[in-house]
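User: I want to check something. If I give you two sequences, will you return the structure for each one separately, not as a complex?

Assistant: Yes, each is folded on its own. Here is the first sequence with its structure:
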Amino acid sequence: MTEATFSSSPKRDAASSNRWKRYSASLKYAFYVILHPFDGFWDLNREEKGSLAAANTIFILFLLTYVLKLMYTNFQFVMVPIQYINIYQRMASLAIPFLVLCISNWALSTLFDGKGRFKDIYMGMCYALFPYVMIQLPCILLSHILAYDEAEFYNVLISVSVIWSAALVFVALMQVHDYSPGKTLIVIIATVVGAMVILFLVMVFFSLLSDAYAFFASLYKEIRFRLN
Protein backbone atom coordinates (compact mmCIF):
# COMPACT_ATOMS: atom_id res chain seq x y z
CA MET A 1 0.00 0.00 0.00
CA THR A 2 2.78 2.41 0.97
CA GLU A 3 4.94 1.47 -2.01
CA ALA A 4 2.03 2.08 -4.39
CA THR A 5 1.43 5.48 -2.82
CA PHE A 6 5.07 6.50 -3.19
CA SER A 7 5.25 5.20 -6.75
CA SER A 8 2.12 7.06 -7.84
CA SER A 9 3.14 10.35 -6.19
CA PRO A 10 5.83 11.27 -8.78
CA LYS A 11 3.31 10.56 -11.56
CA ARG A 12 0.77 12.89 -9.96
CA ASP A 13 3.43 15.57 -9.50
CA ALA A 14 4.52 15.21 -13.12
CA ALA A 15 0.91 15.44 -14.35
CA SER A 16 0.30 18.52 -12.19
CA SER A 17 3.49 20.11 -13.48
CA ASN A 18 2.51 19.41 -17.08
CA ARG A 19 -0.93 20.96 -16.55
CA TRP A 20 0.64 24.06 -15.02
CA LYS A 21 3.11 24.37 -17.91
CA ARG A 22 0.28 23.94 -20.39
CA TYR A 23 -1.77 26.61 -18.64
CA SER A 24 1.17 29.04 -18.44
CA ALA A 25 2.04 28.55 -22.10
CA SER A 26 -1.57 29.04 -23.23
CA LEU A 27 -1.86 32.21 -21.12
CA LYS A 28 1.40 33.62 -22.50
CA TYR A 29 0.10 32.79 -25.98
CA ALA A 30 -2.33 35.70 -25.57
CA PHE A 31 0.59 38.08 -26.21
CA TYR A 32 1.26 36.35 -29.53
CA VAL A 33 -2.43 36.43 -30.46
CA ILE A 34 -2.82 40.19 -30.00
CA LEU A 35 0.32 40.91 -32.05
CA HIS A 36 -0.23 38.25 -34.74
CA PRO A 37 -4.02 37.86 -34.74
CA PHE A 38 -4.47 36.02 -38.04
CA ASP A 39 -1.94 33.29 -37.29
CA GLY A 40 -2.68 33.41 -33.57
CA PHE A 41 -6.42 32.81 -33.78
CA TRP A 42 -5.98 30.20 -36.52
CA ASP A 43 -3.66 28.16 -34.29
CA LEU A 44 -5.55 28.88 -31.08
CA ASN A 45 -7.82 25.85 -31.43
CA ARG A 46 -6.56 24.03 -34.51
CA GLU A 47 -3.06 23.65 -33.09
CA GLU A 48 -4.33 23.69 -29.48
CA LYS A 49 -2.13 26.66 -28.56
CA GLY A 50 -4.85 28.05 -26.31
CA SER A 51 -6.75 26.53 -23.41
CA LEU A 52 -10.14 26.95 -21.79
CA ALA A 53 -8.48 27.68 -18.44
CA ALA A 54 -6.49 30.56 -19.90
CA ALA A 55 -9.60 31.89 -21.67
CA ASN A 56 -11.53 31.81 -18.38
CA THR A 57 -8.65 33.63 -16.66
CA ILE A 58 -8.66 36.41 -19.26
CA PHE A 59 -12.45 36.70 -19.02
CA ILE A 60 -12.33 36.99 -15.21
CA LEU A 61 -9.54 39.58 -15.47
CA PHE A 62 -11.71 41.48 -17.96
CA LEU A 63 -14.60 41.62 -15.49
CA LEU A 64 -12.31 42.56 -12.58
CA THR A 65 -10.63 45.28 -14.65
CA TYR A 66 -14.01 46.81 -15.46
CA VAL A 67 -15.07 46.87 -11.80
CA LEU A 68 -11.70 48.13 -10.54
CA LYS A 69 -11.79 50.85 -13.18
CA LEU A 70 -15.12 52.10 -11.85
CA MET A 71 -14.05 51.91 -8.22
CA TYR A 72 -10.46 53.14 -8.23
CA THR A 73 -9.96 55.40 -11.27
CA ASN A 74 -9.33 59.02 -10.34
CA PHE A 75 -12.60 60.94 -10.16
CA GLN A 76 -11.24 63.40 -12.74
CA PHE A 77 -11.54 60.70 -15.42
CA VAL A 78 -14.42 58.51 -14.24
CA MET A 79 -17.18 59.96 -12.10
CA VAL A 80 -19.15 57.08 -10.62
CA PRO A 81 -20.87 57.14 -7.19
CA ILE A 82 -18.86 54.36 -5.53
CA GLN A 83 -21.38 53.92 -2.72
CA TYR A 84 -24.00 52.81 -5.23
CA ILE A 85 -21.82 50.35 -7.15
CA ASN A 86 -22.99 46.74 -6.97
CA ILE A 87 -19.95 44.67 -7.97
CA TYR A 88 -21.89 41.55 -8.88
CA GLN A 89 -24.47 43.48 -10.84
CA ARG A 90 -21.76 45.30 -12.79
CA MET A 91 -20.00 42.03 -13.59
CA ALA A 92 -23.26 40.42 -14.67
CA SER A 93 -24.00 43.39 -16.94
CA LEU A 94 -20.90 42.44 -18.94
CA ALA A 95 -20.76 38.66 -18.47
CA ILE A 96 -24.35 37.91 -19.51
CA PRO A 97 -24.30 39.89 -22.81
CA PHE A 98 -20.88 38.42 -23.61
CA LEU A 99 -22.08 34.85 -23.14
CA VAL A 100 -25.31 35.58 -25.03
CA LEU A 101 -23.24 36.90 -27.95
CA CYS A 102 -21.22 33.67 -27.94
CA ILE A 103 -24.42 31.61 -27.92
CA SER A 104 -25.95 33.72 -30.68
CA ASN A 105 -22.87 33.41 -32.87
CA TRP A 106 -22.71 29.66 -32.30
CA ALA A 107 -26.40 29.28 -33.18
CA LEU A 108 -26.05 31.35 -36.35
CA SER A 109 -22.85 29.61 -37.43
CA THR A 110 -24.91 26.62 -38.56
CA LEU A 111 -26.86 28.88 -40.94
CA PHE A 112 -23.70 30.54 -42.29
CA ASP A 113 -21.63 27.35 -42.61
CA GLY A 114 -19.35 28.26 -39.73
CA LYS A 115 -16.69 25.78 -38.64
CA GLY A 116 -16.29 26.87 -35.05
CA ARG A 117 -17.67 25.10 -32.02
CA PHE A 118 -19.05 27.01 -29.04
CA LYS A 119 -15.77 26.37 -27.19
CA ASP A 120 -13.78 27.82 -30.11
CA ILE A 121 -15.98 30.94 -30.26
CA TYR A 122 -15.79 31.49 -26.51
CA MET A 123 -12.02 31.05 -26.38
CA GLY A 124 -11.44 33.30 -29.38
CA MET A 125 -13.56 36.10 -27.95
CA CYS A 126 -11.94 35.77 -24.51
CA TYR A 127 -8.44 36.02 -25.96
CA ALA A 128 -9.60 39.07 -27.93
CA LEU A 129 -10.31 40.85 -24.63
CA PHE A 130 -6.67 40.73 -23.57
CA PRO A 131 -5.75 44.24 -24.83
CA TYR A 132 -8.58 45.66 -22.72
CA VAL A 133 -7.02 44.13 -19.60
CA MET A 134 -3.44 44.85 -20.62
CA ILE A 135 -4.07 48.58 -21.21
CA GLN A 136 -6.92 49.55 -18.91
CA LEU A 137 -5.58 47.89 -15.77
CA PRO A 138 -2.40 50.07 -15.71
CA CYS A 139 -4.57 53.07 -16.66
CA ILE A 140 -6.18 52.86 -13.22
CA LEU A 141 -2.83 53.71 -11.65
CA LEU A 142 -2.02 56.17 -14.43
CA SER A 143 -5.19 58.14 -13.69
CA HIS A 144 -3.73 59.06 -10.26
CA ILE A 145 -0.52 60.36 -11.84
CA LEU A 146 -1.86 62.37 -14.77
CA ALA A 147 -3.27 65.85 -14.35
CA TYR A 148 -6.67 66.82 -15.69
CA ASP A 149 -5.00 68.69 -18.59
CA GLU A 150 -3.43 65.37 -19.66
CA ALA A 151 -6.79 63.59 -19.87
CA GLU A 152 -6.48 63.35 -23.65
CA PHE A 153 -3.59 60.90 -23.29
CA TYR A 154 -5.67 58.78 -20.91
CA ASN A 155 -8.69 58.83 -23.24
CA VAL A 156 -6.52 57.76 -26.18
CA LEU A 157 -5.25 54.72 -24.28
CA ILE A 158 -8.80 53.74 -23.28
CA SER A 159 -9.99 54.11 -26.87
CA VAL A 160 -7.06 52.07 -28.19
CA SER A 161 -7.85 49.21 -25.80
CA VAL A 162 -11.50 49.09 -26.89
CA ILE A 163 -10.79 49.40 -30.63
CA TRP A 164 -7.98 46.84 -30.44
CA SER A 165 -10.19 44.30 -28.66
CA ALA A 166 -13.07 44.92 -31.09
CA ALA A 167 -10.75 44.38 -34.07
CA LEU A 168 -9.46 41.16 -32.48
CA VAL A 169 -13.03 39.90 -32.00
CA PHE A 170 -13.58 40.45 -35.72
CA VAL A 171 -10.43 38.52 -36.65
CA ALA A 172 -11.18 35.79 -34.09
CA LEU A 173 -14.61 35.06 -35.55
CA MET A 174 -13.23 35.22 -39.08
CA GLN A 175 -10.50 32.68 -38.30
CA VAL A 176 -12.63 30.43 -36.08
CA HIS A 177 -15.31 30.02 -38.74
CA ASP A 178 -12.95 30.40 -41.74
CA TYR A 179 -15.01 33.29 -43.16
CA SER A 180 -14.12 36.09 -45.54
CA PRO A 181 -14.04 39.64 -44.07
CA GLY A 182 -17.37 40.54 -45.73
CA LYS A 183 -19.12 37.43 -44.46
CA THR A 184 -17.67 37.98 -40.99
CA LEU A 185 -19.16 41.49 -40.88
CA ILE A 186 -22.59 40.15 -41.88
CA VAL A 187 -22.39 37.39 -39.26
CA ILE A 188 -21.38 39.87 -36.54
CA ILE A 189 -24.38 42.09 -37.35
CA ALA A 190 -26.63 39.01 -37.33
CA THR A 191 -25.03 37.91 -34.04
CA VAL A 192 -25.83 41.23 -32.35
CA VAL A 193 -29.41 41.11 -33.61
CA GLY A 194 -29.71 37.48 -32.52
CA ALA A 195 -28.35 38.32 -29.06
CA MET A 196 -30.93 41.10 -28.70
CA VAL A 197 -33.69 38.67 -29.66
CA ILE A 198 -32.42 36.10 -27.13
CA LEU A 199 -32.30 38.70 -24.34
CA PHE A 200 -35.78 39.92 -25.27
CA LEU A 201 -37.20 36.39 -25.19
CA VAL A 202 -35.51 35.69 -21.85
CA MET A 203 -36.97 38.87 -20.35
CA VAL A 204 -40.43 38.01 -21.70
CA PHE A 205 -40.13 34.49 -20.27
CA PHE A 206 -39.20 35.72 -16.79
CA SER A 207 -41.88 38.40 -16.96
CA LEU A 208 -44.52 35.76 -17.75
CA LEU A 209 -43.07 33.53 -15.03
CA SER A 210 -43.32 36.37 -12.54
CA ASP A 211 -46.92 37.11 -13.56
CA ALA A 212 -47.83 33.42 -13.28
CA TYR A 213 -46.26 33.22 -9.84
CA ALA A 214 -48.15 36.33 -8.71
CA PHE A 215 -51.42 34.91 -10.07
CA PHE A 216 -51.08 31.55 -8.34
CA ALA A 217 -49.89 33.20 -5.12
CA SER A 218 -52.95 35.46 -5.06
CA LEU A 219 -55.19 32.49 -5.95
CA TYR A 220 -53.72 30.48 -3.07
CA LYS A 221 -54.27 33.37 -0.63
CA GLU A 222 -57.84 33.79 -1.84
CA ILE A 223 -58.59 30.06 -1.37
CA ARG A 224 -57.07 30.09 2.11
CA PHE A 225 -59.09 33.18 3.04
CA ARG A 226 -62.35 31.61 1.89
CA LEU A 227 -61.64 28.30 3.61
CA ASN A 228 -60.93 30.05 6.87
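And separately, the second sequence with its own structure:
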Amino acid sequence: MNHTSFIHRSKWIFDLDGTLTRPQHNFDAIRAELGIPDGQPILEYLATLPDSRATPLLRRLDVIEDALVEAAEPQPGCIALLQHLADRNADLGILTRNSRSNALRSLDILGVLDLFHPDCVLGRSEAPPKPDPSGILALLQHWQCSPEAAVMVGDFRFDLEAGRAAGVLTIHLDTSGTFPWPELADHQVVHLESIIALMA
Protein backbone atom coordinates (compact mmCIF):
# COMPACT_ATOMS: atom_id res chain seq x y z
CA MET A 1 0.00 0.00 0.00
CA ASN A 2 1.19 3.49 -0.80
CA HIS A 3 1.53 5.29 2.53
CA THR A 4 0.96 8.65 0.84
CA SER A 5 -2.70 7.61 0.58
CA PHE A 6 -3.01 8.69 4.22
CA ILE A 7 -1.80 12.25 3.63
CA HIS A 8 -5.11 13.68 2.46
CA ARG A 9 -7.33 11.59 4.74
CA SER A 10 -8.46 13.79 7.59
CA LYS A 11 -11.69 12.03 8.57
CA TRP A 12 -11.22 9.00 10.80
CA ILE A 13 -14.02 6.66 11.85
CA PHE A 14 -13.47 4.06 14.53
CA ASP A 15 -15.26 1.03 15.82
CA LEU A 16 -15.29 1.02 19.62
CA ASP A 17 -15.21 -2.34 21.40
CA GLY A 18 -12.12 -4.30 20.43
CA THR A 19 -10.73 -1.35 18.49
CA LEU A 20 -10.40 1.68 20.77
CA THR A 21 -11.12 -0.41 23.87
CA ARG A 22 -9.86 -3.81 24.82
CA PRO A 23 -12.39 -6.50 23.82
CA GLN A 24 -15.03 -6.88 26.52
CA HIS A 25 -18.04 -8.49 24.93
CA ASN A 26 -18.36 -12.25 25.21
CA PHE A 27 -20.88 -12.53 22.40
CA ASP A 28 -21.49 -16.24 22.95
CA ALA A 29 -22.43 -15.55 26.57
CA ILE A 30 -24.67 -12.65 25.55
CA ARG A 31 -26.41 -14.83 22.95
CA ALA A 32 -26.94 -17.54 25.55
CA GLU A 33 -28.41 -15.06 28.05
CA LEU A 34 -30.78 -13.63 25.46
CA GLY A 35 -31.74 -17.02 24.02
CA ILE A 36 -30.25 -16.27 20.59
CA PRO A 37 -29.00 -19.24 18.51
CA ASP A 38 -25.25 -19.79 18.34
CA GLY A 39 -23.49 -17.83 15.61
CA GLN A 40 -26.37 -15.46 14.89
CA PRO A 41 -25.53 -11.74 14.82
CA ILE A 42 -27.36 -10.36 17.86
CA LEU A 43 -28.89 -7.18 16.44
CA GLU A 44 -29.89 -8.79 13.16
CA TYR A 45 -31.56 -11.70 14.98
CA LEU A 46 -33.49 -9.37 17.29
CA ALA A 47 -34.64 -7.37 14.25
CA THR A 48 -36.43 -10.49 12.96
CA LEU A 49 -38.54 -10.82 16.12
CA PRO A 50 -41.90 -9.18 16.73
CA ASP A 51 -41.68 -6.07 18.91
CA SER A 52 -43.30 -7.87 21.81
CA ARG A 53 -40.32 -10.25 21.97
CA ALA A 54 -37.56 -7.96 20.75
CA THR A 55 -38.20 -5.00 23.06
CA PRO A 56 -37.52 -6.77 26.38
CA LEU A 57 -34.46 -8.48 24.90
CA LEU A 58 -33.09 -5.15 23.67
CA ARG A 59 -33.62 -3.74 27.17
CA ARG A 60 -31.73 -6.68 28.62
CA LEU A 61 -28.94 -6.15 26.08
CA ASP A 62 -28.72 -2.51 27.22
CA VAL A 63 -28.32 -3.66 30.84
CA ILE A 64 -25.56 -6.12 29.89
CA GLU A 65 -23.69 -3.50 27.87
CA ASP A 66 -24.15 -0.81 30.53
CA ALA A 67 -22.29 -3.04 32.99
CA LEU A 68 -19.51 -3.81 30.51
CA VAL A 69 -18.91 -0.16 29.66
CA GLU A 70 -17.92 0.71 33.23
CA ALA A 71 -14.92 -1.60 32.92
CA ALA A 72 -13.75 -0.15 29.60
CA GLU A 73 -9.97 -0.03 29.15
CA PRO A 74 -8.11 1.58 26.26
CA GLN A 75 -6.63 -0.60 23.58
CA PRO A 76 -2.83 -0.17 23.68
CA GLY A 77 -1.94 2.81 21.51
CA CYS A 78 -5.48 4.21 21.53
CA ILE A 79 -4.73 7.44 23.36
CA ALA A 80 -1.54 8.12 21.41
CA LEU A 81 -3.23 7.57 18.05
CA LEU A 82 -6.28 9.70 18.81
CA GLN A 83 -4.14 12.52 20.17
CA HIS A 84 -1.89 12.34 17.12
CA LEU A 85 -4.90 12.63 14.82
CA ALA A 86 -6.33 15.49 16.87
CA ASP A 87 -3.00 17.29 16.66
CA ARG A 88 -3.27 16.97 12.87
CA ASN A 89 -6.74 18.59 13.05
CA ALA A 90 -8.43 15.40 11.90
CA ASP A 91 -12.16 14.93 12.45
CA LEU A 92 -12.89 11.83 14.52
CA GLY A 93 -16.03 9.70 14.53
CA ILE A 94 -17.35 6.55 16.17
CA LEU A 95 -19.60 3.99 14.50
CA THR A 96 -20.61 1.23 16.90
CA ARG A 97 -23.21 -1.49 17.13
CA ASN A 98 -23.48 -0.54 20.81
CA SER A 99 -25.72 2.30 22.01
CA ARG A 100 -24.65 5.91 21.55
CA SER A 101 -24.93 6.58 25.29
CA ASN A 102 -22.57 3.69 26.03
CA ALA A 103 -20.16 4.91 23.37
CA LEU A 104 -20.07 8.38 24.89
CA ARG A 105 -19.59 6.88 28.35
CA SER A 106 -16.75 4.67 27.09
CA LEU A 107 -14.98 7.63 25.50
CA ASP A 108 -15.37 9.54 28.76
CA ILE A 109 -13.88 6.67 30.77
CA LEU A 110 -10.97 6.48 28.31
CA GLY A 111 -10.39 10.21 28.75
CA VAL A 112 -10.83 11.06 25.05
CA LEU A 113 -14.42 12.29 24.91
CA ASP A 114 -13.27 15.85 24.22
CA LEU A 115 -11.65 14.70 20.96
CA PHE A 116 -15.03 13.69 19.46
CA HIS A 117 -17.91 15.96 18.52
CA PRO A 118 -21.05 14.36 20.03
CA ASP A 119 -22.82 14.45 16.65
CA CYS A 120 -20.05 12.22 15.26
CA VAL A 121 -20.67 9.37 17.71
CA LEU A 122 -23.22 7.03 16.14
CA GLY A 123 -24.73 3.96 17.79
CA ARG A 124 -27.27 1.40 16.74
CA SER A 125 -30.18 3.85 17.10
CA GLU A 126 -28.54 6.54 14.98
CA ALA A 127 -27.68 4.34 11.99
CA PRO A 128 -28.37 0.81 10.76
CA PRO A 129 -25.77 -1.49 12.32
CA LYS A 130 -22.59 -2.33 10.43
CA PRO A 131 -21.95 -3.91 7.94
CA ASP A 132 -24.53 -1.46 6.57
CA PRO A 133 -22.49 1.56 5.39
CA SER A 134 -25.20 4.12 6.22
CA GLY A 135 -23.45 5.31 9.38
CA ILE A 136 -20.23 6.01 7.52
CA LEU A 137 -22.11 7.78 4.75
CA ALA A 138 -23.93 9.90 7.35
CA LEU A 139 -20.61 10.96 8.87
CA LEU A 140 -19.21 11.82 5.44
CA GLN A 141 -22.28 13.95 4.78
CA HIS A 142 -21.90 15.63 8.18
CA TRP A 143 -18.29 16.44 7.37
CA GLN A 144 -19.19 17.37 3.78
CA CYS A 145 -16.40 15.25 2.38
CA SER A 146 -15.91 12.47 -0.14
CA PRO A 147 -15.03 8.86 0.75
CA GLU A 148 -11.49 9.57 -0.48
CA ALA A 149 -10.97 11.75 2.60
CA ALA A 150 -11.93 9.08 5.14
CA VAL A 151 -10.65 5.98 6.91
CA MET A 152 -12.55 3.24 8.78
CA VAL A 153 -10.63 1.42 11.52
CA GLY A 154 -12.03 -1.74 13.07
CA ASP A 155 -11.30 -5.18 14.44
CA PHE A 156 -14.13 -7.18 12.84
CA ARG A 157 -15.32 -7.93 9.34
CA PHE A 158 -18.50 -5.86 9.81
CA ASP A 159 -16.33 -2.75 10.24
CA LEU A 160 -14.32 -3.54 7.13
CA GLU A 161 -17.37 -4.49 5.06
CA ALA A 162 -19.06 -1.21 5.98
CA GLY A 163 -15.93 0.71 5.01
CA ARG A 164 -15.62 -1.11 1.71
CA ALA A 165 -19.29 -0.48 0.87
CA ALA A 166 -18.88 3.24 1.68
CA GLY A 167 -15.74 3.53 -0.45
CA VAL A 168 -13.41 4.62 2.36
CA LEU A 169 -9.95 3.28 3.15
CA THR A 170 -10.10 0.39 5.65
CA ILE A 171 -7.62 -0.56 8.37
CA HIS A 172 -7.95 -3.87 10.18
CA LEU A 173 -6.66 -4.00 13.75
CA ASP A 174 -5.98 -7.59 14.80
CA THR A 175 -3.79 -7.88 17.89
CA SER A 176 -3.38 -11.60 17.21
CA GLY A 177 -1.86 -10.93 13.79
CA THR A 178 -4.20 -13.50 12.20
CA PHE A 179 -6.00 -11.13 9.78
CA PRO A 180 -8.74 -13.49 8.53
CA TRP A 181 -10.28 -11.02 6.03
CA PRO A 182 -7.36 -9.67 3.97
CA GLU A 183 -9.60 -8.94 1.00
CA LEU A 184 -11.53 -6.38 3.08
CA ALA A 185 -8.58 -4.39 4.45
CA ASP A 186 -6.39 -1.83 2.72
CA HIS A 187 -3.98 -2.12 5.61
CA GLN A 188 -3.50 -4.44 8.58
CA VAL A 189 -1.98 -3.55 11.96
CA VAL A 190 -1.42 -5.41 15.22
CA HIS A 191 -1.10 -2.20 17.25
CA LEU A 192 -2.90 1.12 16.92
CA GLU A 193 0.31 3.11 17.17
CA SER A 194 1.46 1.42 13.95
CA ILE A 195 -1.02 3.70 12.19
CA ILE A 196 0.98 6.72 13.34
CA ALA A 197 4.03 5.34 11.54
CA LEU A 198 2.00 5.01 8.35
CA MET A 199 1.32 8.73 8.44
CA ALA A 200 4.94 9.74 9.06
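Because they were folded independently, the notes below concern the second chain alone. The chain has a mean pLDDT of 92. The two ends are 14 Å apart (CA to CA).
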